[in-house]
Design a protein that fits this description.
The protein has 294 residues and is an alpha/beta fold. It has two domains: 212 residues, 3-Layer(aba) Sandwich (Rossmann fold); 73 residues, Alpha-Beta Plaits, CATH 3.30.70. It is built from ten helices and 14 strands. The strands form three sheets. A six-stranded mixed β-sheet has the order 6-7-8-3-9-10, with helices on both faces. Strand 4 and strand 5 form a beta hairpin. The site of adenosine-5'-triphosphate (ATP) has 10 residues, from helix 1.
């Protein structure tokens, strides 16, 4: 497990990270969400040791992260970083060797990864000859070639078409299933919603929410309900303790203002009036949680 505790960092007078704490658990895909400039890349750079924190600690399995441990991390930086004029397979295998693999293992891992990422037929091409989406797949292969114990990926899904998202996801999921903690940042909330087990939301350099995706959704979703009846549902507006979000004919979406049993009062009133087609809590999307948390 990777544990980030109370990280702080400034650039000049600008405090960019303030008391940032979260965990990336083994076998879990953790989505790191935040608006532009909220501090995701800075946090990732600190975890990787590319940048120093001004306060706080980063530990791996309970011990401070040393250079030798970082050597075994896999990182896909925001600025990417493969060589445009070098052959794809050649440079990925070479990166594997830089991370300590022998030549034969580096070559074998490279071939396997390129095949998995459906790039096997492009291995001999120069990176610059690949489309942007395929260059992105090559970057992912480069982050994975040395069988890292921890994966940190800055926007790994940006620029990928939906089929490529599935391909890359399959590769990352396989690593997670083998116990590797995976931390990845993304702006595509709908993608993260589908992909991640855990979520960390950062806003203005502070953690706004974190935890298991489903727990977060449940926590943020306990106060909103949808009622569908057989006739007009406008009367819901008059139930005490209820704030109506939307009424559209027989369908009403409302929130509770904290008064106990207001949801029950709505349901009982609806039953008294006639047929109730459905009455369900509304589970928020990650988009909605994100907008509320930041
Ligand atoms: N080397 C630097 N010098 C000065 N300011 C910096 C530096 N690196 C980052 N910042 C500032 O720190 C803040 C956080 O930047 P960071 O790149 O971590 O955000 P981010 O969440 O990754 O954003 P994005 O989603 O746009 O990539 C921004 O205000 C940025 O301008």
């Amino acid at each position: 497990m990777l544990t980030v505790t109370s990280i702080g960092r400034s650039f000049g007078d600008l405090q960019v990270l303030d008391g940032v704490s979260f965990e990336v658990r083994p076998g879990r895909m953790t989505g790191f969400l935040g608006a532009n400039g909220s501090g995701k890349t800075t946090t990732m750079r600190i975890v990787l040791g590319v940048l120093a924190a001004h306060s706080g600690t980063v530990t791996w399995r309970g011990s401070p992260v040393t250079g030798a441990v970082r050597q075994r991390f896999g990182y896909m930086p925001e600025e990417r970083g493969l060589y445009p004029k070098m052959g794809v397979a050649e440079q990925i295998a070479w990166l594997g060797q830089l991370h300590g693999l022998d030549q034969a293992t580096a070559k074998r891992n490279t071939e396997r990864l390129l095949d998995q990422l459906e790039l096997g037929h492009r291995g001999k091409d120069k990176l610059e000859e690949l489309s942007l989406g395929n260059q992105q797949r090559a970057q992912i292969a480069a982050a994975l070639v040395h069988d890292p114990v921890m994966l940190i990926l800055d926007e790994p899904f940006s620029g990928l078409d939906p089929i490529a998202v599935e391909t890359v996801l399959g590769v990352l999921r396989e690593r997670a299933a083998n116990g590797v903690p995976v931390l990845f940042s993304s702006h595509q909330l709908s993608v993260v919603e589908r992909l991640c087990d855990d979520v960390v939301i950062i806003s203005g350099g502070k953690i706004a929410a974190s935890g298991a995706r489903d727990e977060l959704r449940a926590r943020y979703g306990t106060t909103r309900f949808e009622l569908v009846v057989a006739s007009d549902a406008g009367w819901v507006r008059d139930v005490p303790g209820v704030r109506v979000v939307d009424v559209d004919g027989p369908r009403a979406v409302f929130e509770l203002d904290g008064r106990p049993d207001a949801d029950r009062a709505v349901l009982e009133a609806a039953l008294r009036r006639g047929t109730v087609r459905s009455f369900t809590p509304v589970v928020p999307t990650l988009d909605e949680i994100f907008m509320e948390a930041i």
